[in-house]
Amino acid sequence: MSGPHHVTPLVGCAATAIGGALGALARWGLESAFPTGHGGFPWVTFLINIAGSALLAALPLLPVVRRHAWAGVLLGAGVLGGFTTMSTASVDTFTLLDGGHVALGSAYCLGTVGAALSAVLLVSRWTSAEQQQAAMDEEWDE
Questions:
Q1: Which of 23, 62, 70, 116 could covalently link to 83 via disulfide, CB atoms 3.0 to 4.6 Å apart?
Q2: Structure confidence by residue, pLDDT tens digits, 15-53
Q3: Residue 42 is inside which H or E element, if any?
Q4: C-beta separation of 54 from 122 below 8 A
Q5: CA 129 to chain centre
Q6: What's this model's pTM, rounded to 2 decimal places?
Q7: If you compute the radius of gyration of the chain from its CA atoms, what whole number of angstroms results?
Q8: DSSP-assigned letter for residue 142
Q9: CA triple 26-41-31, angle to 5 deg
Q10: What are the tens digits of pLDDT across the range 102-126?
């Protein structure tokens, strides 16, 4: 397979690695700048995961992503994959629960999933029917 929508393994690995490093550095920077206190609500991780979910949902709307598969890999699996951190959300949840903060841990767990799904639905709602159709028509069309 060739064309603008084929990503070779080398390009896919490079795009994911470069994007992932950038996304992880952005997350690290935010979490370092705004640390969570012991037993506190992990707002930074929460907001990162919500924003990342919304941005992932919006990726198909970008013409560059629809036209070049490597851009989707770079931005999606790479940057946003490195930026979002559901595994840290899981650890944060168990840390809160193990620390006796059952209500906060439960709210954090359910809130993260609910808010991430809501963010994806909002992107869908804010997207016009014409934009959605353009993405469907153009995506992976060779």
A1: 23
A2: 999 999 999 999 999 999 999 988 899 999 999 999 999
A3: none
A4: yes
A5: 23
A6: 0.85
A7: 17
A8: -
A9: 15
A10: 999 999 999 999 999 999 999 989 8
d(CA 98, CA 76): 33
Q: Is 74 exposed, middle or buried (0-12, 13-18, 19+ CB in 10 A)?
A: buried
What Cα–Cα distance (Å) separates residue 93 from each residue in 30, 40, 77, 83? 19, 11, 24, 18
Check: CB of residue 6 under 8 Å from CB of residue 140. no
Task: Report how far Cα 131 is from the mean position of its chain's Cα atoms.
Answer: 21
In residues, how long is the chain? 142
Distance of CA 108 to the CA centre of its chain: 17
Measure the CA–CA gap between 100 and 112, rounded to whole angstroms. Answer: 19
Q: What are phi and psi of 98, to 5 degrees?
A: -65, -30
Q: Is 84 strand, coil or helix?
A: coil
**What is the secondary structure of 3-39 as a DSSP string?**
STT---HHHHHHHHHHHHHHHHHHHHHHHHHSPPPTT
